[in-house]
Write a structure and sequence with these properties.
heterodimer, A: 157 residues, alpha+beta, Ubiquitin-like (UB roll), DNA polymerase, domain 1, 2 domains, five-stranded mixed β-sheet, 6 helices, globular, B: 696 residues, Aldehyde Oxidoreductase, domain 3, Aldehyde Oxidoreductase, domain 4, 3 domains, seven-stranded mixed β-sheet, 18 helices, 28 strands, binds FE2/S2 (inorganic) cluster
């Protein structure tokens, strides 16, 4: 048992548990946030993505110890922001959501991408999202949704 | 004309984007236990001994001896055991479950179980036929006797894994005698009927609830019945809520795949260089148990000439049993294999005959009124000539083809033409499925669709709700459609075979019509409807004669590729598609299906590699089994043609599978052009292309 402290969706958290546990399990089982999904458990699909200090990280391959003193945001926290509202609207307008299992992770990837590059090209979007697998959409409408979001949200990123 | 095709926001999109939507693994139940499956580590043999460690309190072993009813998963053929008894037929075959209050306790026991086997020689080649079908059209024998020449080729296709991002699984609970399973499934009543047989219990003692499905593509058609039966048996013994959800590796190693195939086609050619007859043999690898393989075979065989009309046909096919993981449903269901073979064959024939490919294909293209492969009739208008023109125009096909064929640059453009039969084959819908729907109106004049159709991302909720709203002239907000629960909804059939919009949607429209006609504001009303086959359908299952499908959807794919001269890696540059799905019920939803389906079809042709060594799959996670990323996928452009079908709601036909079946041949033909060699096998990997390049 070790004491781990971090900020979780804006709130300070203190946990006493095994620091080698997968952060995804801590989020889903201990903190009861089921927005991040487990698609592969090996860092390949991005369904479990969360933001750590604004950068995308796959929480299924992250030991809890690594978030000590960091700022963690999951889709639940991010969905309360203005930037989220823009991305959400763009995804709905473009019809970019099918089964949805990849989508919370995809939204985190879009936020992380626009944080780094508020005006990505088609190609840069594809590279930026290449860590997130989607089996349903073929990515076409997702790319269009990001193009729409960056226009709608000018100045937000 | 109806404007139903105008896109609306998908009804469940917000919950999915914000992460609020609950998938099966997101449910929490107090006192939840965990189950893990103990599996065979050989491909064929007999279990000699099983040695269990002392079981800690709370940990239970569940195996075939605990099954109150039949040790078989109810499907079309009854050859698939719930748990292996003595005989092992494939690597990874389930033998028992370890159930306990924590994953750690389950794992500790699991690690100490020792099973010894008497190994037998497994069979991996397609030599043991378990089902064979044959049919003819016209008089192929005479046509072959009179042929100027005959040409014969063989085509092969590999495995494809559905690779839904959400693995399979259920959470089960037991209350008194009643088993309730919540799961990621396409066919609630398949699971229910299978569990009833396994438990040998009353129908009212089994309740199946569909959780939001995180992708399925056929993979959650029949396989969940197996997991559901195992879990139901465990619930009866353990009497605690249990979670049985696969991790990625287990899901990839043991769930059903697309059948590998070997298809031989021989054509009889006349004086004018036209095809007068084709003889085909379709062999598919069923894996260890038949499951749905015979139906997959029949669908492949019925697609024997795809979008072309050939007057004389002989079509033979076999499902071969091998000691490998059972293969099963995957979007397209036999058609992707066959259509790959047909498209390559037509191209190869044209080349052998020195004919212009485009012109050669046009001469054989099916027209309204022609006889189908099974001597039924193409009754409805066929828009393919205009669709092909459109595809050529938006892709710049002819110019690019001329350019790439004459250039040394390794670039290519390929086109495929295809159809897909909508709904179940022949009289399946009327004789076996007998779909029922129920519409309920409450005092607030809200209408509830009580149907077993599953939204697995394809947009069934939004489209079927739109159909009801349009008929009832109500806003979408007044229509409701909850995930099916077999305690509430009647059996509307499985969500498969591109039947949901056309068949279930048609029933919803009829039921809504009836409520509309007897509308009593403020009063509860209930309407039931069941399926009636269109009068013109006639089908003889024994001879494969008649109308195999009530309707056909049509498509054209164009794929442009470049091949890296050094690594021979294929890069897909652009994809264009034109589809006739009757009437689109929502353009964004149909085009979304098109984008995703075409991506899966194209990737099947060049990217997705799965194979086994001694019956053990070599690719068992998302690192080894590569599906396209956003970078692999090119820009896709899709055009929809309006061609309303009289019996579909607002004219809708099937859309889900059509968009997958043409991708592989289009990319393979493009690759042929780029490397100037003939492709007869998919996936066309760099290793295979290297082999072709070296075979001069
Ligand atoms: S679940 Fe973490 S990357 Fe797939
Ligand atoms: S929407 Fe299904 S995996 Fe992306």
């Amino acid at each position: 048992m070790t004491k781990i402290t971090f900020t979780f969706n804006g709130k300070p958290i203190e946990l006493h548990t095994d620091p080698s546990r997968r952060f995804l399990d801590v989020i889903r089982n201990d903190l009861k946030h089921t927005g991040p999904k487990e698609g592969c458990g090996e860092g390949e699909c991005g369904a479990c993505a969360v933001l750590i200090n604004g950068h995308i990280v796959n929480s299924c391959i992250l030991p809890l110890a690594n978030v000590h003193h960091q700022e963690v945001m999951t889709i639940e926290g991010f969905s309360k922001t203005k930037r989220y509202a823009v991305i959400e609207e763009a995804f709905i307008k473009e019809g970019a959501v099918q089964c949805g299992i990849c989508i919370p992770g995809m939204i985190i990837a879009v936020e992380s991408l626009l944080n780094r590059n508020p005006n990505p090209s088609d190609e840069e979007i594809r590279v930026g999202l290449s860590g997130n697998l989607c089996r349903c959409t073929g990515y076409n409408m997702i790319v269009k949704a990001v193009l729409r979001a960056k226009e709608m949200g000018k100045g937000l990123w | 004309m109806s404007t139903i095709n105008k896109s609306v926001p998908k009804v469940e999109a917000k919950d999915k984007i914000s992460g609020k939507m609950k998938y099966v693994s997101d449910y929490h139940v107090e006192g939840l236990h965990y189950a893990k499956t103990v599996r065979s580590t050989i491909a064929k043999g007999v279990i000699q001994s099983i040695e269990l460690p002392p079981l800690p309190e709370g940990v239970t072993i569940v195996d075939y001896q605990d099954i109150p009813g039949k040790n078989v998963v109810k499907m079309i053929y009854e050859d698939w055991p719930v748990f292996a008894e003595k005989n092992i037929s494939h690597y990874g075959e389930p033998i028992m479950l370890v159930v306990g209050p924590s994953k750690e306790m389950v794992q500790a026991v699991f690690d100490k179980i020792k099973i010894t086997y008497q190994e037998e020689t497994p069979i991996f080649d397609m030599v043991q036929s378990k089902v064979d079908y044959h049919f003819t059209k016209g008089d192929p024998q005479t046509a072959f006797q009179e042929a100027k020449k005959t040409i014969k080729y063989t085509y092969e296709t590999g495995y494809q894994e559905q690779a839904y991002i959400e693995p399979q699984g259920f959470i089960g609970t037991l209350e008194d005698e009643k088993v309730t399973l919540i799961g990621s499934i396409q066919a609630p009543y398949y699971v229910k009927n299978a569990v009833i047989d396994t438990l040998s219990c009353k129908p009212e003692d089994v309740r199946i609830i569909q959780a939001t499905v995180g992708g399925a593509f056929g993979g959650k058609e029949e396989f969940p019945s197996l997991i559901g039966c195992q879990l139901a048996v465990a619930l009866k013994k353990v009497k605690k809520p249990i979670k049985l959800i696969y991790e990625r590796e287990e899901d990839m190693e043991v769930t059903t795949k697309r059948h590998p195939s070997k298809i031989t086609m021989e054509a009889a050619i006349d004086e004018e260089n036209n095809i007068t007859a084709i003889k085909s043999h379709v062999g598919i690898d069923g894996g260890a148990f038949l499951g749905l393989s015979s139906v997959v075979l029949s669908r492949a065989m019925i697609a024997a000439t795809s979008a072309y009309t050939i007057n004389h046909l002989q079509v033979d096919g076999d499902v071969y049993i091998t000691n490998t993981v059972p293969n099963g449903a995957f979007r397209g269901f036999g058609a992707p294999q066959m259509i790959f073979a047909v498209e390559m064959f037509i191209n190869h024939l044209a080349k052998d005959l020195n004919e212009d490919v485009h012109d050669f294909r046009l001469r054989h293209l099916a027209k309204q009124g022609d006889k189908t492969t099974t001597s039924g009739t193409f009754r409805d208008p066929i828009l393919m000539p205009e669709m092909i023109k459109k595809a050529c125009q938006i892709s710049g096909y002819h110019k690019k083809k001329a350019l790439y064929e004459s250039s040394e640059k390794m670039k290519g453009i390929g086109m495929s033409w295809f159809l897909h039969g909508c709904g179940f084959t022949g009289s399946g819908e009327a004789d076996h499925i007998k779909a029922k729907v129920k519409l309920r109106k409450d005092e607030a004049d809200h209408v509830y669709l009580e149907i077993a159709a599953v939204d697995m991302g394809q947009g069934a909720k939004t489209t079927l709700m739109k159909v009801a709203a349009e008929v009832l002239e109500l806003p979408l907000e007044a229509i409701h459609f909850a995930n099916p629960d077999t305690d509430i909804v009647p059996d509307s059939g499985p969500t498969v075979a591109s039947r949901t919009a056309m068949v279930v949607g048609g029933l919803v429209a009829r039921a809504a019509q009836e409520i509309n006609e007897n509308w009593q504001s403020g009063k509860p009303q209930i309407v039931h409807k069941s399926y009636k086959q269109p009068d013109y359908m006639e089908w003889d299952q024994a001879t494969f004669n008649g109308d195999a499908y009530p309707a056909y959807s049509w498509g054209v794919n164009v794929v442009e590729v470049s091949v890296d001269p050094a690594s021979l890696e294929v890069r897909v540059e652009h994809i264009w598609s034109v589809y006739d799905v009757g009437k689109s019920l929502d353009d964004n939803i149909v085009i979304g299906q098109a984008d995703g389906g075409t991506a899966q079809g194209v990737a099947y042709g060049y990217l997705e590699v799965m194979n086994h060594r001694n019956g053990k799959l070599l690719q068992k996670n998302m690192t080894d089994y590569v599906i396209p990323t956003a970078v692999d996928m090119a820009k896709t452009e899709t055009v929809l043609f309006d061609n309303p079908f009289a019996y579909g709601p607002y004219g809708a036909k099937g859309a889900g599978e059509l968009t997958l079946v043409g991708g592989a041949p289009a990319v393979a033909i493009a690759i042929e052009m780029a490397i100037n060699k003939r492709v007869s096998k998919i996936p066309a990997t760099p290793e295979y292309l290297m082999e072709l390049m070296n075979n001069d």
